[in-house]
Amino acid sequence: MEFCMKARQGVKLCFDSGETEAVKIAIDSLEQDLKKVLPGITVIKECETKENREIKREESDFPVIVIKTIAQNEVQKIKEWMLDEKGALRKEAYQWEIQDCMLFITGTDRRGTIYGIYSFCEWMGVSPWYFFADVPIKEKSEIVLFKKDCRVDYPSVEYRGIFINDEEELESWVKKYMGEPTIGVKTYKKIFELLLRLKANYIWPAMHVNSFNITPENGALADKMGIVVGTSHCDMLMRSNNCEWKPWLEKKVIQMLFMIIL
Predict the structure, then answer these.
(1) In 3D, which of 24, 30, 57, 58 has the Cα closest to residue 225?
(2) Mean pLDDT over residues 141-170, rounded?
(3) What is the pTM of this model?
(4) CA–CA gap between residue 74 and residue 95 (Å, rounded)
(5) In terms of DSSP H, where are the helices of the chain?
(6) 253-257 average pLDDT score
(7) Which of 153, 170, 195 is the last residue of a domain?
(8) What is the rounded CA–CA span in Å between residue 171 and residue 124?
(9) Is residue 158's pLDDT more than 90?
(10) Helical pair 216-225 and 185-197, crossing angle rounded to 10 deg
């Protein structure tokens, strides 16, 4: 059994209307990756509701990719390797499965589904570093996934991520290429995407050139895309020492001196 997609034809992406924004963003990335790998392909995104969920997908004129985040009460539909010793869903696990010539990408939670999507993108030939390292994407006339190539995977370490250190050079690059005065939402969106494509889930944000917390949109974007934000070894209470604590301390010292003078 196999799943095949061809250039200059079409593919349908089916997903539940209740999927999280994080999963929907990854689906958008999958759409763009398909167009890069298979030139001229038509991608149809079908957001399923309770009313149309029972439509027979096998009647579609195009190959179908079904993307789903599974619930605990649906564990009988997934591979046993996606369950822990107690029978509960593993965190951030995913599986690919071919049924009736359709590809099912299933995750145990939003990040699991996202990892399943981005793993498939990488399998097609899109490197996680396509943006930051300019890794070229080779066009293909068709791609074929065989049943033996399907996979199940889940992380063995709960938090996996990076600390953006000595970010002055990154800020200079951002000013030149991203059109932002400092590392902001536009840049963090690409950083978060890179982390998810690498199966990471955690970031210690930049703290020298600005404060991640000063721009509320930064944290909102991290939550929207499924990234956990933490604090670094020299951030106190998730506050930047240069951009938040230092000005606060200077203000307090001035206030104390003023009180002493009075």
Answers:
(1) 24
(2) 93
(3) 0.88
(4) 14
(5) 21-37, 110-124, 168-177, 185-197, 216-225, 246-261
(6) 72
(7) 153
(8) 32
(9) yes
(10) 20
Q: Are 167 and 209 in contact (CB under 8 A)?
A: yes
Copy the structure tokens of residue 189: 């969106």
Q: What is the pLDDT of residues 125-148, one digit of tens each?
A: 999 999 999 999 999 999 999 988
The pLDDT of 62-76, averaged and rounded, is 81
Provide the domain limits for residue 216: 161-261
Count CB atoms within 10 A of the CB of residue 134. 8
Q: Which two tokens stand for residue 210?
A: 């600005």
Question: Are residues 128 and 218 both part of a single domain?
Answer: no
Distance set, CA 24 to CA 105, 158, 239 (Å)? 13, 23, 31
Q: Tell whether 230 and 169 lie within a shared domain.
A: yes
- 151-161: average pLDDT: 94
| 13-36 residues labelled b (16+ CB within 10 A) or e (exposed) | bbbeeebbebbbbbbebbeebbeb
| Residue pair 100/58 in contact by the 8 Å Cβ criterion | yes
99 and 206 in a common domain: no
Whether 146 and 187 share a structural domain? no
CATH of the domain at 44: 3.30.379.10
